[in-house]
Amino acid sequence: xxxxxxxxxxxxxxxxxxxxxxxxxxxxxxxxxxxxxxxxxxxxxxxxxxxxxxxxxxxxxxxxxxxxxxxxxxxxxxxxxxxxxxxxxxxxxxxxxxxxxxxxxxxxxxxxxxxxxxxxxxxxxxxxxxxxxxxxxxxxxxxxxxxxxxxxxxxxxxxxxxxxxxxxxxxxxxxxxxxxxxxxxxxxxxxxxxxxxxxxxxxxxxxxxxxxxxxxxxxxxxxxxxxxxxxxxxxxxxxxxxxxxxxxxxxxxxxxxxxxxxxxxxxxxxxxxxxxxxxxxxxxxxxxxxxxxxxxxxxxxx
Length: 302
Ligand code: NAD
Fold this sequence. Notes:
It is built from ten helices and seven strands. It is α/β, with parallel strands linked by helices. The chain has a seven-stranded parallel β-sheet with strand order 3-2-1-4-5-6-7, with helices on both faces. Helix 3 (68-82) packs parallel to helix 4, helix 4 (106-131) runs parallel beside helix 5 (154-174) and helix 8 packs across helix 9 (271-284).
């Protein structure tokens, strides 16, 4: 592969699993010395071994991005090991299992903000001293949830919205040092093949079809964009957010099986029956003729 990052060094937070692992892999295969910072020691060590067995220069360092002392120590360790830091990918993040705002606890709010927003702030703060004299790139992995929402996702959406603002603030502050700062906002990315252990994707044809690009996203899609934006080819791009979502945010309506089920429940006023109808429709895909027979019998002459 074309080695755009030969003699460069990067840090990928949350690089043990999911999108971060794909980013770490992509940058390492393009010649970058890659440090994975992650709270998950088990996954991090497995990933480090796996990449080493492919001849990639990768180290794993355990750190919680929301804890300043851990971040500062980990970044110093990367510098001691590799002698430079050129690229920081603020990818570590946690989701929020949706519940109405009245039931959200302040601790839940704080944890999401701490990891998803304070984490990138701390990592950027501690990496700057190593980038100041040679330039660098910081890429924040935000989300399309920074721009649009489903119900009951306040902590996550707010953390990612804050990350977009942090991105342009840093881009302006750090421009004099030739440090570019960017955000990438992915849409729906299926990370099963980058988990430890790998999982089978659980995606339906409808999941894929509702994307204008025809499929759900893959971690490799995000990694390819990161590699371009982190490279010198993107030297005139800074301060902006780039959406990568297969066209979903510019589409007027999201449709998924839950919405269909909700619509049926609204129509007939019975959640249990709506759920049964949804299961029935899903099964109908397998044996259409049998289902037609059942419906003909049930409907009679009506
Ligand atoms: P994931 O859960 O598969 O991986 C997240 C990684 O971050 C894990 O390795 C985890 O151990 C690590 N991590 C979590 N908390 C940490 C902490 N406090 N300190 C250090 N490491 C920590 O998640 P993912 O789906 O790959 O998401 C990666 C990033 O992309 C997140 O910021 C997420 O918000 C964003 N994102 C994901 C999607 C998606 O559909 N998967 C969409 C938009 C944005």
